[in-house]
């Protein structure tokens, strides 16, 4: 059954929110994906998969073809543009941060696009007499550097598909309109502003042409068609025939007759099918030629198909994420019983960086595999928490609202907490539920199962006193070392006592709060206890809807942003924003 989400109220009126707060809101509330590879339905600006949609959603929603989901793209780009216009320097550092410190590919594409077209392009600034006083900052060079940034075997650079998507995003009429309105292009032109995209894409392609092993590697990884589309869109003119040969791309003369490279003598590299080969011969080819999964699956004879032996031969070419995604296939082929395969898969479980394994678990039969996939989800949360608190001793207090106003929302809160609590070291995590009485909660094990067991008895009912949860933890002996920072995360709707009363409770219990966060879960109406408490204590405040935790990719991002402790209480909106500002600006290599 499809759940239809509804927007939650914003923390502050729009006019009172600065660029740092807006940037944090973007990360905490930006789980929507820009590109989808399957048909969907759009309702109130939200994308839903068409398959398995409820009758209500099918009736009310608008069918969407696979590809760019424009409402999500416009929302994200408008948010980035708003931050850029309020604080250009913050946006520049955030663009560098998005590429080098996150695996959020849609954000990498959108920030690259903005940097390539925005107005700061190193133009001369002149004195009254016309002489050049100095040159403006060239932030378009930062956009170029984002496209050209290269890290071997890293996800923190633009793939060929991402470079192409930058142009596709900028060419989208709604995005082009935003750019023209911002003054980034000729308002009278029919062509969308692309800034320096063609320059950056041409240089990106030239670098790969001059490094044939890189070009061949991209073809082996399944990017041949993408590279051809990229070259066409950029109007790329290769210097040698090798470019066309590696891509298996036959050429013909242009109508104007000006082409000189690739017209004759091409020796095209073609991927012939494996028809007529036995399973053992195919395996030998895979090992000898170091073929990848994408290179092989479309070439297998109909009578052979993907066998256990062939898949085992392909394992070295699969990434950890690929292995986890293929768990149902590995199970069906019986490969999970193979010691070498299982060891490689266990390694992928330990290295999980998102919580997609929870979705994969629904498609496997064995309970043991389901449990291990849940462990992968826990590992992703642990990795995010560890990265966020690597430089600071952080203690976390979770206060869970189970009052009567949470009737209808408590179950959603439980699921969100199940996805994240297992990521915290048990000795630094303190949890209490509250209505008018606080109850200390302790998981029996640091795992999804342990958290589920801890939360299963929570039922909504009674009044609301946030302070009762704080007092319960204090009575149970919770103390925070002087050198540690305490982050308090409240789960609920904020209905309750005045914020000043909650603030007094923290002070009376001897808790120096470094930051407050709210996981918004609203069934009926929303209060302001946590926000006003943060204001009274003069500490950073941030919020995130529990809906965000349904996205397996968003969970690690949210945890990192929530847990980046500020350098000092009240020093700014969050230490995470400070970390963004410390990110060096990418520079284009000469």
From TrEMBL:
Residues 396-493 form the VWFA domain. It comes from Cystobacter ferrugineus. This is VWFA domain-containing protein. InterPro entries: VWF_A, vWFA_dom_sf.
